[in-house]
UniProtKB/TrEMBL annotation:
A single GO BP: DNA recombination
Domain Toprim residues, every copy: 79-174
Protein name: Recombination protein RecR
Keyword Zinc-finger appears in the UniProt entry: yes
PROSITE patterns: RECR, TOPRIM
SUPFAM superfamilies: Recombination protein RecR
ZnF endpoints (C4-type): 56-71
Recorded name of the encoding gene: recR
A Pfam match: RecR_ZnF
Amino acid sequence: MSASPIENLIKSLACLPGLGPRSARRAALYLIKKKETALYNLAQALDAVQESLVVCPECGNIDTSNPCSVCSDPKRDDSLLCVVEEVADLWALDRSRLFSGRFHVLGGRLSALDGITPDDLTIESLVERVRSGKIKEVVLAMNATLEGQTTAHYITDRLENYPVRITQLAHGLPVGGELDYLDDGTLAQALRARRPVS
């Protein structure tokens, strides 16, 4: 017997990060009670996003325009490139409004345990961007995890033959912390205190 649409809604909501079965039920009940406003608006927003979502071919950001709004911004400094693991990290750094350069999303981080190798990430396209000669500084904004730091070291090794300054965010970031969960003040301090990678 198939599940009812309400049960399907609860199951779908429960798949979202931060929502367990109880929170999903509460969210579903709220949407059902406010179906003319909240449920309708959510359905419209989800439909619009599904129709217009695109991965930026330049940086890997997710947006509704191609290239994305970050890459098409003429006020950004083309000589600065910030490398992040995921789109959420790009959004967190961009939200701080302290980094005026371009971004590159790797699509994850190296992890032997999970079988993620350099071929699974966008490291080759990063090397190509640096090879173009426009970039003067690469800021490695990896999460302060073992895998994040391993990824940063690998990228540093790949870029060592290019005339580019390589820096990383200051280690004031909490170990095990992820950029998307940090407040703007912590991100600002980490960007200001970035240092060369030795």
